[in-house]
Amino acid sequence: MIFEDFTYHSINVDEMKTSLEELNEAIQKADSQTEFMSLWKQYDTLYKDFDTNVTLCSIRHSIHTKDPYYAKENQFYDEKVPELEASFQAISKSIVHSKWMEGVKDQIPPTYFAMKEMEEKSFSPEIVPELQEENRLASKYQSLIASAEISFEGKIYNLSSLEVKMTDASRDCRKKATKAYWGWFEAHKDELLEIFDGLVQVRTKMAQKLGYENYIPLGYYRMNRFDYNQDDVKQYRQEILKEVVPVAQKLYASQKARLHLDHLYAWDEKVEFTTGNPKPHVSQEECVKLAGKMYRELSDSTGSFFQSMMDSHLMDLQARSDKAAGGYCTYIPNYESPFIFANFNGTSSDVETLTHEAGHAYQVWSSRSIFPFECVWPTYETCEIHSMSMEFITYPWMHSFFKEDTNKYLYHHMSGAIKFLPYGVLVDHFQHEIYAHPEYSSQERMACWRKLEKMYLPHKDYSEIPFLEQGGWWMRQLHIFMDPFYYIDYTLAQVCALQFWSRFERKDSQAFSDYQKICSIGGKYPFRQVVELAGLKVPFQAGCLVEVMKEVETWLAQFDQNTL
């Protein structure tokens, strides 16, 4: 069956509430372990059906944001899904505290119980109005970004397609494109700031209703951070500042020298080479076919997985005017199907996005049979290990996509991975400051960003772009609006992925089987334990970053800067 034929049913919230209440009562009255497990599996099936329909709506809305039917359905779920949270939580409590649980506890992933504890700490029926408002504002941001139409050189671009011009080999072209890109954000600054202020206030309000001083602890609970805390993250940010920022600054200096520039301005940052950045030497259609060949050669398992993605039309990759921004992978449980969404624009990010999201998709495909369904996905920072590692695992096949520009791509990708780490912790640090100080004005938030930016990204020069000099960059970062505190996860996973890269580079015969192992276990274990099962060092561990940076610097030094 192909994705277009997947059946969508609009959820009747009242009927579902009734079904959940009846099932909850039956679970509480179960008079045997067998009956208890049968009822739990009924709930699991009901939850998967619910998740299938919400996910199908979300995908189809993001593919065509102007489709009135799915726009209306998406708005409906923004309002109604929070109303179901109380019913979900009630039934989860009945399951966890059932007298029959003791007999089956050893068959259930330990993370299930940790997750339910986090849910109890992060939800109460009294915050339903705030959750509804949060959904409304997040959707408003997504729709605003998707609606961007920017006139440039006689054509109309959306934000994703204009980014291609921002990497043009012509400095004049990319300068104009960069100004046009940020000009759109400046023109919509007031609306963006209003949306964000609404999000900060509503998140702070729900945190205070639940008894927390501010949103930060609630944010950690909502992210299911089982085995690390704010202190761990703060220490990790300091380690990035100490060990990674100097390496990243060397890379920016090399970039400036390679480009024969006296100064690296904002419009120069996105281009690495005088001849322009590496681009796939194949069409977008051929890119997918080559990916299929690559995954067949990588392993039988990855080959079967990706073939099913192609056969069932489980990827929507081309940029279109009414498409939501960004890229993601999600999962449609009733069809046991991952789905990859992207906005291909003819740059190297097409290949990066495809391999990254395929890593997510392969993981959830590998763990799809785990019970309960809520443990099919791991926590966010663990999810990103699978996706980011896949970008490095596929290095031996990059020649198929980039031909004579393969070395340029490898250097570009690796240096980009290192440059990303300071930016990633900047996003995290900014959010900690913002939610610790919800009273900040919009101007104070922008000033806060710029202050932290100078700490983690000291090379930034925003001459001729006052919007960025004032601290406006963060308004393009979707996660800050839609997924608070979901960003340090990428950096933690990147450090793990670089360790996998090192093992593959050293021809470690166990590396891929370890990767497959952590894909197949899904969400059975918390982050630190997954990292250890993968044969890697936890990024918080002393000395981890020093070792990783040393290996990366040595590897990058082998490239002749004059021939890139």
Secondary-structure-based class equals mainly alpha
Question: Roughly how much helix do the residues carry, as a percent range?
Answer: 55-70%
What is the strand tally? 5
Q: Rough shape? A: globular
How big a fraction of the residues is strand?
under 5%
Give me the Rg, rounded: 24 Å
Number of helices: 23
User: Termini, distance in Å?
Assistant: 45 Å
Features:
564 residues, mainly alpha, three-stranded mixed sheet, globular
How does this structure look, described?
This protein has 564 residues and is mostly helical. It has helices spanning 13-29, 33-63, 68-96, 110-122, 128-146, 159-165, 171-187, 189-209, 215-222, 230-258, 284-298, 300-311, 349-366, 380-393, 398-402, 406-436, 442-456, 466-469, 478-482, 488-505, 511-520, 527-533, 544-557; strands at 150-152, 155-157, 315-318, 328-332, 337-344. A hairpin with a 2-residue loop joins β1 (150-152) and β2 (155-157). α2 (33-63) packs antiparallel against α3, α10 crosses α16 (406-436) and α20 crosses α23. The two termini are 45 Å apart.
Give the SSE layout.
Blueprint: H1 13-29, H2 33-63, H3 68-96, H4 110-122, H5 128-146, E1 150-152, E2 155-157, H6 159-165, H7 171-187, H8 189-209, H9 215-222, H10 230-258, H11 284-298, H12 300-311, E3 315-318, E4 328-332, E5 337-344, H13 349-366, H14 380-393, H15 398-402, H16 406-436, H17 442-456, H18 466-469, H19 478-482, H20 488-505, H21 511-520, H22 527-533, H23 544-557
Task: Write a concise synopsis of the structure shown.
The protein is mainly alpha-helical and 564 residues long. The chain contains 23 helices and five strands. The model has no long low-confidence stretch (mean pLDDT 97).
